[in-house]
Amino acid sequence: MQIEKKDIRALSKEQLRDFFVTNNDKAFRGNQVYEWLWSKGAHSFEDMTNVSKETRQMLEGNFVINHIKVDTMQRSSDGTVKNAVRLHDGLIVESVLIPTETRTTACVSSQVGCSLDCNFCATARLKRMRNLEPGEIYDQVLAIDRESKLYFNRPLSNIVFMGMGEPLMNYNNVIKAIDMITSNEGLGMSPKRITVSTSGVSKMIRKMADDEVKFKLAVSLHSAIEETRNRIMPFTKSFPLPELREALEYWYHKTKSKITYEYVVWKGINDNKESVDALVKFCKYVPCKVNLIEYNPIDDGEFQQASPESINAYIKALDSNGIIAKVRHSRGKDIDAACGQLANKEV
């Protein structure tokens, strides 16, 4: 019976050093291999050219590197790039490179499918098949960093966890990936350039605050009226607004980091004065800003983009109450790379 080999990237640097010592080699070999795995993004042991052939064969006999492979890449007319990323077990996730004149942002996935049931989102219609491992999350970022340098002559500047999946339902692996992305032994990015977006998992927002994370927090709110929010995102019945509000107040008390609310306005759902007033009231609890996001249809009629007048009503009300609000026009719609559209249609 063949023993399944362990993914070598599940080992810490110390564990790698110990492995080499146990196998009658020098501990510094662990440092070399660790550098190849993370900062150099090696996909095979053969890539490790400053490691002897015998050592590479020993690694091959004991471990695998479960790296991702960019299966297909699509480029939008607006410059957005979408990667269909094949995992070692054949499953697919998607990640997106979003360029502007001043920055390049990676939108990365944290789960295959999604744990939640937001009715307006294509990804939520895929059942959650599994969580992504830290290395698989890291690889998405590494691939987009390389594409950013290739197509836009500059490194990746920002990362948002707004791809497939609910990041806080894969908390430990997301945190490990961010630790490596921000480490000098990884990509060395500032945590202030990373935003983790949640649909409002209150208890995990509190845990992030207790863990003193340094990245930014975004919350997909979409309604500050309980009944409407539950209709849009049925799972939120388990995380009611008063509980979410308390968790966000706790977050700000611990981190002093302003929250971003992601908010889509739909025709006939939350495009009324009651919804506007409720959002303004909710925004006053914790220092925040609001991104009003253009809706991207997913082939049904229940959710439709609200009128410009409805969105302007939100902007006017938020602005008059001293709350920063911006309209975010979606990128990559022609390749189904915009918010809520990631669903592996080509697979």
Automatic annotation (TrEMBL):
Top enzyme category: transferase
GO process annotations (BP): rRNA base methylation; tRNA methylation
EC number: 2.1.1.192
InterPro entries (UniProt xref): Aldolase_TIM (IPR013785), Methyltransferase_A (IPR040072), RlmN_N (IPR048641), RNA_MTrfase_RlmN (IPR027492), rRNA_lsu_MTrfase_RlmN/Cfr (IPR004383), rSAM (IPR007197), rSAM_sf (IPR058240)
Keywords: 4Fe-4S, Cytoplasm, Disulfide bond, Iron, Iron-sulfur, Metal-binding, Methyltransferase, rRNA processing, S-adenosyl-L-methionine, Transferase, tRNA processing
Domain of life: Bacteria
Encoding gene (name): rlmN
Annotated family: Belongs to the radical SAM superfamily. RlmN family.
Positions of S-adenosyl-L-methionine binding: G165, E166, S197, S220, L221, H222, N296
Cofactor: [4Fe-4S] cluster
Protein purpose: Specifically methylates position 2 of adenine 2503 in 23S rRNA and position 2 of adenine 37 in tRNAs.
Binding site for [4Fe-4S] cluster: C114, C118, C121
Catalytic activity of the protein: adenosine(37) in tRNA + 2 reduced [2Fe-2S]-[ferredoxin] + 2 S-adenosyl-L-methionine = 2-methyladenosine(37) in tRNA + 5'-deoxyadenosine + L-methionine + 2 oxidized [2Fe-2S]-[ferredoxin] + S-adenosyl-L-homocysteine; adenosine(2503) in 23S rRNA + 2 reduced [2Fe-2S]-[ferredoxin] + 2 S-adenosyl-L-methionine = 2-methyladenosine(2503) in 23S rRNA + 5'-deoxyadenosine + L-methionine + 2 oxidized [2Fe-2S]-[ferredoxin] + S-adenosyl-L-homocysteine
Record protein name field: Probable dual-specificity RNA methyltransferase RlmN
GO MF: 4 iron, 4 sulfur cluster binding; metal ion binding; rRNA (adenine(2503)-C2-)-methyltransferase activity; rRNA binding; tRNA (adenine(37)-C2)-methyltransferase activity; tRNA binding
Radical SAM core domain segment(s): 100-334
